[in-house]
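Dear colleagues,

As part of the handover before I leave the project, I'm documenting each prediction I ran so the next person doesn't have to rerun anything. This entry is a single chain, and its sequence is reproduced below.
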Amino acid sequence: MKKNDLEFYDLNANNWWEEDSKIYALYHLNKPRFEFFDRYVPNWQGLKALDVGCGGGFSCEFMADRGVEVSGIDRSAKCIEKAQEHAVKRGIKIDYKYGLAEEMPYEDNTFDVVVCVDVLEHIADLNKVISEINRILKPNGLFFFDTINRNFKSKFVMIWLMENILREIKQGVHDWRKFIKPEELTDLMEERSFTDIDIKGFDMFGEALKLNWASYKEFKSTGVVKVRINDDTSVMYIGKAVKQCFLSAEC
């Protein structure tokens, strides 16, 4: 079976904004994600932000509704097309582009904020992507992210349980070998001059090894996953980092 099968996103592009589709569950993650991001951004109005791996535009529209000047980039041309259609339908101005995170078509020091959620565990070259994000951020710019840890528990939850047993995620979407330990990502960011790194648990599955069927049944009935921001990074984690400012003239 193919692993890290990103064709899934092309195949589901037309369903992105359908509230009864499985992929729409990702829409509900905006609220807990931005509750964490809001700790570091008291006012989003007027900021220039990029969503890397924007898919059909969930996070882009969430930011646009807060008065952000938003851009989005994704490797799926079909998702970009649907994102553009939905933004036009709502009368929202978002600059969407088709492209790869490893080589982004933006000038140095362009964005105040870069958001990259549910993406880092899929990309081909993590080193390049972190370097590119650093390049396009303004000095003291903020990098917000979430991704999946690599250990036995994450393999059990994300692959065996969510893909193979419950089928909440299509089989083959993830490759456990591409999951990223928090310390690995931290080292990589520090090598590329990110500082003030803060990582917390993005805990959707904290009791998954106990088979918390009550929470799962609630998700099935509402479509909303209850997420806790805590210290449990064992499956998923969320974080922020700041692009270091070297020259006083830049700061």
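The chain is about 30% helix and 20% strand. Helices lie at 7-11, 30-37, 58-64, 77-90, 126-136, 152-165, 182-191, 213-222.

All the best with the project,
I.
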